[in-house]
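=== How it folds ===
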Amino acid sequence: MTSPSTEHRAHPSPATVGQLRESGWQSFPVKEELRRNAIARIQAGEALFPVVMGYEETVLPQLENALLAGHDVIFLGERGQAKTRMIRALVGLLDEWMPIVAGSEINDDPYAPTSRYGRDLVAEHEDDTVIEWVHRSRRFGEKLATPDTSIADLIGEVDPIKVAEGRYLSDELTLHYGLVPRTNRGIFAINELPDLAERIQVGLLNVLEERDIQVRGYKINLPLDLILLASANPEDYTNRGRIITPLKDRFGSQIRTHYPLEIETEVAIALQEARPLEAEGVRVTVPDYMTEIVASLSHLARSSPHINQRSGVSVRFTITNHEVMVANAARRALRHGERDVAPRVSDLEALPASMMGKIEIESLEEGRDAQIAENLVKAAVLTVFKERFTPERFRPIVTAFEEGAVIHAGEDVTSAEYVALLEQQPALRAAVSELTGGDESAASVASAVELLLEGLHLSKRLNKDAVGARATYRARA
């Protein structure tokens, strides 16, 4: 179960079926409930999924159409494309509170109970039947499809303890309900649907079309009211299984997701999702161009012939790279005793630890993985550098190097040393000020200087000698 929020208002006051009728409460199918609430948000100009970025013109209109049409939905896309996040966000479109027959395992509607337990209770007590209120956060069920998932997990099975208590096997009350019926009148999601064994997928056919379930040889009619959502990777990538054709046919809408199309969206996602680093005595400020480098790295990886594009380059690749870059800057500040710090180009050398587990590198030569990753980082730095500056802009700086200037940079150089460098090399000052936006703090100046030096090197305007974490920039021979 997943709760979109732990904060909610108190539930309504009716405590019996009779009081519920007097209050005027009406029962609606869950798809109608979602449709009604989606329409209200659309009319009010509110975003249905404010936490999802980059899908405003592509995925979200399709999802809105599916909700208005009352469809079950399957999201098809590579890893890290917010499929599960959108599914869980749908809980916010349910009514905040829903009444059920008190004690019901499958959220029986007080006006039309489905289970034997609910029917018997309402038949005996009628309007005096006690009800309880269920918050929308409890109306969501989720299952990660694994090869060992069984029909009993999803649909149900005979409970031997209930049989041992004296009930007959033919008694519906001996059933132990699975995840699907326990999410009756709610939202049920299956992640990585192709991983579900085909014989188990067959068990979902009735759930999607006839809206009932079958457990072994029981003669029961248990019509379920739910919306079924699923996520899957494209079948050309997922070699572990497939979605059977009859099951795909029963989903009303299939929505194809994608990675962020613009760098700006990738940057916004990274800033929203990356965990802030809190270290006592250290304050980290991330320049916008450093975040752009991390985002550009992801976009370059998604178009690189050296990266397996079928497996995808997740947005988590961007987020974790950003977090590691910030962490390395904080570690450097702690070692130097600096209070304020900003990530620099030299901090990008820490990224392989967060990169390599999230991409599948395709290379004919052994041991080239590290080199391919390093080249991607360099390409990202050069891309951002060229977007901000033109080559003519650096003629005075290059001239200073041709006249004998040599600059040392790297992780072991403090921010104060970079500030002192500007006094020795005034040609750098204007470009640094342009990058920092006038921010003259030592941390910002240090970050800007490293980007300028590395950008000039990658643009073949300067030479660079690197030994470990230390680099030396000088004029080209």
About this structure: The radius of gyration is 29 Å.
